[in-house]
Amino acid sequence: MKFSVEDCEIVELPIVHNENGNITVLENNINIPFDIKRVYYLYDVPMGAERGGHSHYQLQQYVVAASGSFNFILDDGVNKREVFLNHPNKALHIKPGIWREMKDFSSGSICLVLASMEYTEKDYIREYKDFLNYRKNG
Q: A Pfam family name for this chain (predicted)?
Protein backbone atom coordinates (compact mmCIF):
# COMPACT_ATOMS: atom_id res chain seq x y z
CA MET A 1 0.00 0.00 0.00
CA LYS A 2 1.30 3.42 -0.90
CA PHE A 3 0.59 6.11 1.66
CA SER A 4 0.15 9.81 0.91
CA VAL A 5 1.24 12.82 2.94
CA GLU A 6 -2.39 13.09 4.08
CA ASP A 7 -2.06 9.67 5.75
CA CYS A 8 0.62 11.11 8.03
CA GLU A 9 -1.32 12.63 10.87
CA ILE A 10 -0.82 14.55 14.08
CA VAL A 11 -1.85 12.35 16.98
CA GLU A 12 -2.88 13.78 20.35
CA LEU A 13 -1.04 11.90 23.08
CA PRO A 14 -2.60 11.42 26.52
CA ILE A 15 -1.56 13.76 29.32
CA VAL A 16 -1.77 12.83 32.97
CA HIS A 17 -1.96 16.21 34.71
CA ASN A 18 -0.34 16.72 38.09
CA GLU A 19 0.41 19.89 40.03
CA ASN A 20 4.06 18.79 40.05
CA GLY A 21 4.22 18.32 36.28
CA ASN A 22 2.59 16.37 33.49
CA ILE A 23 3.41 12.92 32.12
CA THR A 24 2.63 11.31 28.79
CA VAL A 25 2.84 7.53 28.52
CA LEU A 26 3.28 5.75 25.18
CA GLU A 27 2.60 2.01 24.95
CA ASN A 28 2.97 -0.49 22.12
CA ASN A 29 -0.29 -1.15 20.28
CA ILE A 30 -2.28 0.85 22.84
CA ASN A 31 -1.71 4.48 21.89
CA ILE A 32 0.99 3.72 19.31
CA PRO A 33 -0.24 1.51 16.44
CA PHE A 34 3.00 -0.50 16.22
CA ASP A 35 5.59 -2.12 18.49
CA ILE A 36 8.41 0.29 19.26
CA LYS A 37 11.69 -1.37 18.23
CA ARG A 38 13.97 1.68 18.43
CA VAL A 39 14.01 5.07 20.16
CA TYR A 40 16.35 7.91 19.31
CA TYR A 41 16.44 11.67 19.60
CA LEU A 42 18.04 14.59 17.82
CA TYR A 43 19.37 17.54 19.79
CA ASP A 44 21.93 20.35 19.54
CA VAL A 45 20.96 20.81 15.89
CA PRO A 46 22.78 23.97 14.70
CA MET A 47 20.69 26.93 13.60
CA GLY A 48 19.89 26.63 9.90
CA ALA A 49 20.76 22.93 9.72
CA GLU A 50 18.43 20.45 8.04
CA ARG A 51 18.00 16.78 8.85
CA GLY A 52 16.27 13.84 7.23
CA GLY A 53 16.36 13.83 3.46
CA HIS A 54 15.32 10.19 3.10
CA SER A 55 12.41 7.76 3.08
CA HIS A 56 11.81 4.24 4.34
CA TYR A 57 10.32 1.20 2.63
CA GLN A 58 8.67 -0.24 5.77
CA LEU A 59 9.48 1.85 8.83
CA GLN A 60 6.77 3.80 10.67
CA GLN A 61 7.64 6.55 13.11
CA TYR A 62 6.06 8.65 15.82
CA VAL A 63 7.94 11.95 16.06
CA VAL A 64 7.53 14.20 19.09
CA ALA A 65 8.92 17.65 19.85
CA ALA A 66 10.03 16.69 23.37
CA SER A 67 11.34 20.25 23.70
CA GLY A 68 11.27 23.28 21.41
CA SER A 69 9.99 23.15 17.86
CA PHE A 70 10.83 22.19 14.28
CA ASN A 71 9.19 21.70 10.89
CA PHE A 72 8.76 18.51 8.89
CA ILE A 73 8.35 18.59 5.12
CA LEU A 74 6.57 15.41 4.02
CA ASP A 75 6.57 14.35 0.37
CA ASP A 76 4.80 11.43 -1.31
CA GLY A 77 6.24 12.08 -4.77
CA VAL A 78 3.17 14.07 -5.85
CA ASN A 79 2.17 16.23 -2.88
CA LYS A 80 4.17 17.97 -0.18
CA ARG A 81 2.96 18.96 3.25
CA GLU A 82 4.65 20.94 6.00
CA VAL A 83 3.97 20.03 9.64
CA PHE A 84 5.06 22.16 12.61
CA LEU A 85 5.73 20.30 15.85
CA ASN A 86 6.05 22.25 19.09
CA HIS A 87 4.36 20.36 21.93
CA PRO A 88 5.32 17.12 23.72
CA ASN A 89 1.77 15.76 23.71
CA LYS A 90 1.49 15.72 19.92
CA ALA A 91 3.16 13.15 17.70
CA LEU A 92 3.52 13.08 13.93
CA HIS A 93 2.82 9.56 12.65
CA ILE A 94 4.94 9.10 9.52
CA LYS A 95 3.90 6.15 7.39
CA PRO A 96 6.22 4.07 5.16
CA GLY A 97 7.23 5.43 1.76
CA ILE A 98 7.12 9.13 2.68
CA TRP A 99 10.13 11.36 2.04
CA ARG A 100 10.90 13.56 5.03
CA GLU A 101 13.03 16.61 5.66
CA MET A 102 13.37 18.54 8.91
CA LYS A 103 14.26 22.20 9.33
CA ASP A 104 13.80 25.32 11.46
CA PHE A 105 14.91 23.76 14.73
CA SER A 106 14.47 26.15 17.64
CA SER A 107 17.27 26.61 20.14
CA GLY A 108 17.31 23.73 22.62
CA SER A 109 14.89 21.59 20.63
CA ILE A 110 14.77 17.84 21.14
CA CYS A 111 13.18 15.64 18.46
CA LEU A 112 12.15 12.28 19.92
CA VAL A 113 11.56 9.45 17.43
CA LEU A 114 9.83 6.15 18.16
CA ALA A 115 10.43 3.68 15.34
CA SER A 116 8.69 0.45 14.35
CA MET A 117 11.91 -1.29 13.28
CA GLU A 118 15.47 -1.66 14.40
CA TYR A 119 18.01 0.16 12.26
CA THR A 120 18.69 -1.46 8.91
CA GLU A 121 20.28 0.41 6.03
CA LYS A 122 18.30 -1.72 3.55
CA ASP A 123 15.09 0.06 4.62
CA TYR A 124 16.39 3.51 3.62
CA ILE A 125 15.88 5.34 0.34
CA ARG A 126 18.54 8.05 0.47
CA GLU A 127 18.41 9.50 -3.05
CA TYR A 128 15.37 11.54 -4.07
CA LYS A 129 15.43 10.22 -7.66
CA ASP A 130 15.36 6.65 -6.27
CA PHE A 131 12.43 7.64 -4.06
CA LEU A 132 10.48 9.02 -7.03
CA ASN A 133 11.20 5.84 -8.99
CA TYR A 134 10.02 3.72 -6.04
CA ARG A 135 6.81 5.76 -5.71
CA LYS A 136 6.15 5.45 -9.43
CA ASN A 137 7.13 1.83 -10.03
CA GLY A 138 7.07 0.20 -6.58
A: FdtA
